[in-house]
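Encode chain A's predicted structure.
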Amino acid sequence: MFEKTALLFIYVETPLHAGTGRGLGAVDLPIQRERTTQYPMIQASSLKGKLRAEIRERNGWSDTSEEIIALFGKAGESGESFAGAVAPGDARILLFPVRSLVGVTAWTTSCHVLQRLVRDCAAANVQPPPLPSKAPTGEQALVVGNALSVNNQVVLEDFSFAADASQSSALTQLATWIAERALLKGEDYNFWRDQIKQKLVVLHEDAFRDFVLYATEIQTHVRLDPAKKTVQTGALWTTEALPSDTLLYAPLMVSASRVEDRKNGQPGKPKWSADEVLNTLRSVLDGKRIQLGGDETTGQGWVTTRLLLPQEVHKQ
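Encoded structure for chain A:
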């Protein structure tokens, strides 16, 4: 039984490749996607592995240390096995950056995506953001103001949408909720918080799906023959990545550890309470920069993280 919940926001600073292995389509190494919607995601198992590595490295623990076993469990064919105290969910897409004719970049989402956020907020006991009262049609784009529009049109990539500012007040509240809770609080993020508040766009779910499916970043990799300076046979491949400034979120659930506090002579008492587990996660994740996904040695996958707890919302 999970005792504590939170939402983990992940803001992508450099292209992020959370892969699935070799694909069968045009891209050799595609990113992880949901089966039914084709939205980009980071699977819970990938996220949990990264959390384990980050906590281990920041605290100087080993993989076999009692602290890591208490947090993430122990598995094996022989001996004692039990679940860990940390249980992240899949990281889902919330905002996807798209090239704009005016204003350089728009942060796009859809009512379908936002309704999922509301549902996950309820599961995490977090106060949800205000949403638009009416979804846009396939030819419309709900906008905050005129930062992205020209002649009442919003042009994203090669597609034009009629700018609809009739729900500007609701979108401003939504953008403010996201900017203040999902992005870092430091001065280096003042510009980006303001940009999201001005350039949030809500699209029809079909248009949003097409952008997240076809407007990701495709990187070409080669390996050259050192003598001939030509591509070696079979050493040309492409990799898909989420672009910089993508925003994802994941539910995070914790329980008391299933390891007893043996060092202090208290058998039967958990080594860590649920609050202590959550505080450990918070110290590693809230307002920090970490690396996710592949190609770490080429600067890929750097993200910032914010951890939103239920009680924090009511204090604001």
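Residues 4-18+32-215+242-315 form one domain.
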